[in-house]
Amino acid sequence: MPPLPNSRTEPDGSAVIRILSYNIRSMRDDTDALARVISACEPDLVLVQEAPRFFRWRKKLARLAAASGQVILTGGGTAAGPAILCTLRATVERAEDVLLPLTPGEHRRGFATAVVRFGGARIGVLSCHLSLRKDERYDQSGMLLDRLAGMGVEHAIAGGDLNERPGGRTFRRLTDALQDCWATAPWGAEHTWTRDAPHRRIDAIFATKGVEVLGCGVPLGLPGVAEADLRRATDHLPVLAVLRVPAA
User: What number of helices (H) and strands (E) belong to the chain?
Assistant: First the structure.
């Protein structure tokens, strides 16, 4: 497996950034293994799904961030599960948690969003966990695209647990407007569910058209990422993408 580029800022102000999207199942599994996986991926941004939402959720998420070399940017309980972590390399312009309309009998859903800068590159970021119900999920994908379009940035990324495979109408709606980073520059492994016998890709990272995708996939075989840790950390496998974002 070819190595992925390291994070860096180019002389022209563009930035190479590493993005990790990860459903962490409310940290109900092996938190030490989870922190080791995140650390080994060396992300600049972590798009979290199923962050802790209830009793002392901020303390739990802060503990994970500290153990994996990150800080909390936004989200968690205030976004109904999605969160964004980042390194100190990121300059945060603004952040906002968005609660989506509630369907009676279903879990509340939300988006964690932010606008950040790396060097001369400015980028909108969104972490999501879409509904298990196909009609609600489709509606939420439209809200996601509207949210990215309303951020006032030229370049944006979104990532999360879509609860749908490529080919589904929600997935297609997103790929009609955005680059599916795995399909654009596949690297590593493809399937994210289940952790023990992965056979579905239901987690993904997307980018607007002007962002260059240098590689994206499940980091199986990445130095420092142990398969035993991936199995113990949570019930999903993570998605790692390396992107080059043009200067603003």
Answer: 6, 13
